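Per your request, structure below.
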C-alpha cells in the first residue's frame, strides 16, 4: 500500500463493514490497521482514530461505546484531556476506566509509591509494583489497555503553587485524593480556571460524590470553611475495602463522560451519599 496515500484513503481501504447485533451496518477498523496507518504516515495513533471517527469509521475497541455516546461523543472523548489528582484507590480505577472509554489525553498527578497496604483496593497495584511510582506504573498500565491514549505522568505533590499549571489544559478534573486540604486546593484552582471538578470520597462502607462547576458552592457547602484539616482522610480510621472506591470511582468517570459529551445531567449542586452497609442512597441539595 503506497505511503503517499492520504490518511483518509488509507482508512477507506482498511476499514471493514460490520453488522451489529441490532442489525445496524457500521464501518469499523481494527487496532492493527490503526497502527499501520500511524506508522506509514508518522502521526500519533490518536490522530488516526480521530480521523477514522470523522469519516464515520469506528475503531473496533469503541464499538460498545457508540450506542451510549455515539460517534460524536466518542470524538469528543478522544479530543479531550482529563486530569486525575491521585492514583490510589479512587484514582487507579478512574484511570483504568477513562483509558478503556477512550479519553485522548490523561494527566495523572501523584507523588506517592505503592505500599503493601495498597494491594487490597488499588487496582493498578500489584505485588511486583511495590515501592514503584504510582504515576509511572499507571502510565505503563494505560498503554497496555489503550496504546492510543496519550499520558502525562506527573510525579509531584499537589499544592497551591503548581496545581493550575498542571491542570490548565483539562476539560474536567477528577478527585482521587485522600484528604480535604488538597481537595480544597484543587477545587479552588478548578473554579478559578473555569474547569468542572468531580469530587468523590470514601470511608469504610460509605462514599460520596458531586460535580462542582465554576461558581458552585462546592466543598465549602459540605465541609465548611475550617482550616483545621488533617493530612489523612477519614478512611485511614474507617478502612477502605476494595469495592467502595471502585463504585465511587466508576460514578466519577460517568460524570466526566457526561460533562465531555454533553449527554445526561451531572450531579450538580447536590451531594450523593451512599451507605453500602445499609444499602441506602441519600441526596442532599446544596441550593
Amino acid at each position: 500500500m503506497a505511503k503517499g496515500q492520504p490518511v483518509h484513503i488509507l482508512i477507506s481501504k482498511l476499514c471493514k463493514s460490520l453488522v451489529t447485533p441490532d442489525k445496524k451496518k457500521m464501518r469499523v477498523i481494527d487496532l492493527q490497521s490503526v497502527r499501520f496507518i500511524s506508522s506509514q504516515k508518522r502521526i500519533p495513533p490518536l490522530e488516526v482514530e480521530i480521523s477514522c471517527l470523522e469519516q464515520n469509521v469506528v475503531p473496533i475497541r469503541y464499538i460498545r461505546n457508540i450506542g451510549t455516546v455515539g460517534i460524536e461523543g466518542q470524538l469528543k472523548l478522544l479530543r479531550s484531556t482529563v486530569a486525575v489528582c491521585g492514583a490510589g484507590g479512587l484514582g487507579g480505577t478512574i484511570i483504568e476506566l477513562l483509558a478503556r472509554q477512550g479519553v485522548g489525553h490523561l494527566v495523572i498527578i501523584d507523588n506517592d509509591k505503592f505500599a503493601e497496604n495498597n494491594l487490597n483496593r488499588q487496582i493498578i497495584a500489584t505485588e511486583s509494583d511495590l515501592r514503584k511510582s504510582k504515576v509511572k506504573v499507571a502510565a505503563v498500565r494505560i498503554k497496555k489497555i489503550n496504546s492510543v491514549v496519550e499520558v502525562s505522568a506527573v510525579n509531584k505533590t499537589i499544592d497551591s503553587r503548581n496545581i493550575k499549571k498542571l491542570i490548565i489544559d483539562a476539560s474536567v478534573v477528577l478527585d482521587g485524593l485522600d484528604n480535604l486540604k488538597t481537595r480544597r486546593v484543587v477545587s479552588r484552582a478548578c473554579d478559578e480556571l473555569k474547569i468542572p471538578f468531580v469530587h468523590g470520597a470514601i470511608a469504610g462502607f460509605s462514599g460520596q460524590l458531586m460535580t462542582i462547576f465554576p461558581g458552585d458552592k462546592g466543598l465549602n457547602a459540605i465541609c465548611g470553611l475550617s482550616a483545621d484539616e488533617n493530612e489523612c482522610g477519614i478512611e485511614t480510621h474507617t478502612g477502605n475495602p476494595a469495592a467502595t472506591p471502585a463504585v465511587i470511582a466508576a460514578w466519577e468517570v460517568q460524570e466526566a463522560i457526561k460533562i465531555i459529551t454533553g449527554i445526561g445531567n451531572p450531579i450538580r449542586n447536590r451531594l450523593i451519599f451512599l451507605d453500602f452497609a445499609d444499602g441506602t442512597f441519600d441526596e442532599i441539595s446544596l441550593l
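The mean pLDDT is 93.

Regards,
D.
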